[in-house]
């Protein structure tokens, strides 16, 4: 049982997943700072997103005599925040990386020769023989 667990932990997929989680956490910090420092101030130029959380609330009496509050504004604010984060991630990270990959693929495609099959050993020997015959037949100067 311990041997199986050891194989599971040392398998490449688990290590890759652990690295991805750590990098994802660090990446989250970068995206959060970009959104809070750049996107949220841009949004606040047009309207206050914070006011949505407080403004669109529906309070109804509960069956136990209390009140239940539905915070629709908080949902809308979360959607706006998500879209802002997705916008930053796409335009700052995804789009430039896709462009870089496209350029790299185009560069590699232009450097590669056509997909002609390589001649066999026999075909090469026949070509060499023919070239040697041709050289022997040509007049020497």
From TrEMBL:
Highest taxon above the source species: Bacteria
Gene expressing this chain: mscL
Keywords: Cell membrane, Ion channel, Ion transport, Membrane, Transmembrane, Transmembrane helix, Transport
Biological role: Channel that opens in response to stretch forces in the membrane lipid bilayer. May participate in the regulation of osmotic pressure changes within the cell.
Family recorded in the similarity comment: Belongs to the MscL family.
Keyword Iron-sulfur: no
Naturally occurring in which organism (per UniProt): Microbacterium aquimaris
Name recorded for this polypeptide: Large-conductance mechanosensitive channel
Bilayer topology: Multi-pass membrane protein
Subunit-structure text: Homopentamer.
Pfam families: MscL
InterPro entries: Mechanosensitive_channel_CS, MS_channel, MSC/AndL, MscL_channel
Subcellular location: Cell membrane
HAMAP family: MscL (MF_00115)
Keyword Transport (UniProt): yes
Transmembrane regions: 12-35, 70-93
